[in-house]
Structures are given as structure tokens and as C-alpha cells.
């Protein structure tokens, strides 16, 4: 990832408390090491020199099958809350948590499930639906042109990072 970050502004959100400890925030340390911004669990970001705002958060729930259902729900609730002036207008919603990558552009906004930086970890929760739980490792590059148009480019590592599953002969 490091070569892809050179010369770019970027942020890292905090993972769930499962990934952190009480004394040390892994996500904060990664942001500092890579010279990025640590965003905590949720952050609204007004993008300089544009009219655009991003809302970035760690969690959006975990869909077992259809990733887009969670993102559509997030955007629906976002637009309802905006319409009654509870929260500011947001052009791009970025969520994580599922460790998979998905990008949807629909009228009214862009919705992104960002890939993660954590490799597969075998435990009871992740061995259920094992093929579904192999993470996308990477990030998302968001850029804007002179006309304020939004471009979303997912970046995923090409290497497959999976556990060593060699057969055992009995």
C-alpha cells in the first residue's frame, strides 16, 4: 500500500474494538507510520477546493449475502436525515467492517465499502462462510476534477492472502 499513498492525502478509520487494545490503537499507529490522518470511528470530511463532503465510518452492519443492501440502506437513511436537516449533506459514504470491496454510484451519491488492511484470521465467526470471509486488502482512491466530478478507484492487493490449508493424509 505504501507506494500508492505517496503524495496523497489519506485517512484511516479505527477498526472495531476487537482489533484494538485498551492501551494501543493499531489503526492510529498505522496512520501515523504511513503519515496519514487518523479519523477515529466516524468523520465528516469537507474536501478542500470542492463542494464535496465525505462521511467515513467503520461499521455499517454485516450482510451475509448482499453487500449492496447494507449500502443502499445507509444511503437511504443518510438522505432522509439530510432532508430534515439533522445532518449535513454528504456526497460520498464510505464504510468498512466487512473486509470486502464494493462501489455503487447512484443518483444522489456514491457509496463505498472500502477494503481492509487486515488478513484472514481463522476463528469461529470467520470459518462460517469461509470463502466469503477472505478479505479484500487495499483501499479506495477518491479524486475530483476541475468540474467537481467524483472519481472512485478501488485499489486491492493482487496477492491472495489466505490461510495455509494443506490436506492432511489419514
Task: Tell me what the structure shows.
- The protein is α/β, with parallel strands linked by helices and 170 residues long.
- It contains four helices and nine strands; from the N terminus they run H-E-H-E-E-E-H-E-E-E-H-E-E.
- It has a five-stranded mixed β-sheet, with helices on one face. A two-stranded parallel sheet has the order 1-2. It has a two-stranded antiparallel sheet with strand order 8-9.
Q: State the shape.
A: globular
Strand content: 15-25%
Q: Would you list the SSEs in sequence order as H and E? A: HEHEEEHEEEHEE
Derived from helix and strand composition plus strand pairing, the structural class reads alpha/beta
Number of helices: 4
| Gyration radius from CA atoms, angstroms | 17 Å
Low-confidence stretches: none
Q: What share of the residues lie within helices?
A: 10-25%
What is the makeup of the main sheet? 5 strands, mixed
- Order of the strands making up the biggest sheet: 3-4-5-7-6
Number of strands: 9
Compute the separation of the termini in Å. Answer: 41 Å
Based on the structure, what is the oligomeric state of the protein chains? Answer: single chain
Mean pLDDT across residues: 79
In short:
This protein has 170 residues and is of the alpha/beta class.
Topology of this structure?
Elements: H1 2-5, E1 11-12, H2 26-33, E2 37-38, E3 42-46, E4 53-57, H3 67-83, E5 92-95, E6 102-106, E7 109-113, H4 124-127, E8 138-144, E9 150-156
Parallel strand pairs: 1-2, 4-5, 5-7
Antiparallel strand pairs: 3-4, 6-7, 8-9
Amino acid at each position: 500500500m505504501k507506494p500508492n499513498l505517496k503524495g496523497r492525502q489519506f485517512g484511516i478509520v479505527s477498526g472495531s474494538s476487537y482489533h484494538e487494545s485498551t492501551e494501543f490503537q493499531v489503526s492510529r499507529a498505522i496512520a501515523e507510520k504511513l503519515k496519514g490522518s487518523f479519523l477515529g470511528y466516524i468523520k465528516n470530511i469537507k474536501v478542500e477546493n470542492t463542494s464535496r463532503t465525505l462521511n467515513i465510518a467503520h461499521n455499517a452492519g454485516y450482510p451475509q449475502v448482499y453487500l449492496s443492501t447494507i449500502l443502499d440502506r445507509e444511503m437511504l437513511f443518510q438522505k432522509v436525515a439530510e432532508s430534515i436537516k439533522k445532518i449535513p449533506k454528504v456526497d460520498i459514504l464510505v464504510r468498512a467492517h466487512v473486509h470486502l470491496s464494493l462501489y455503487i454510484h447512484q443518483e444522489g451519491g456514491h457509496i463505498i465499502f472500502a477494503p481492509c488492511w487486515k488478513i484472514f484470521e481463522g476463528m469461529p465467526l470467520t470459518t462460517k462462510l469461509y470463502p466469503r470471509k477472505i478479505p479484500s486488502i487495499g483501499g479506495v482512491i477518491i479524486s475530483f476534477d476541475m468540474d467537481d466530478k467524483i472519481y472512485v478507484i478501488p485499489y486491492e492487493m493482487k496477492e491472495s492472502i489466505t490461510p495455509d490449508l494443506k490436506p492432511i493424509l489419514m
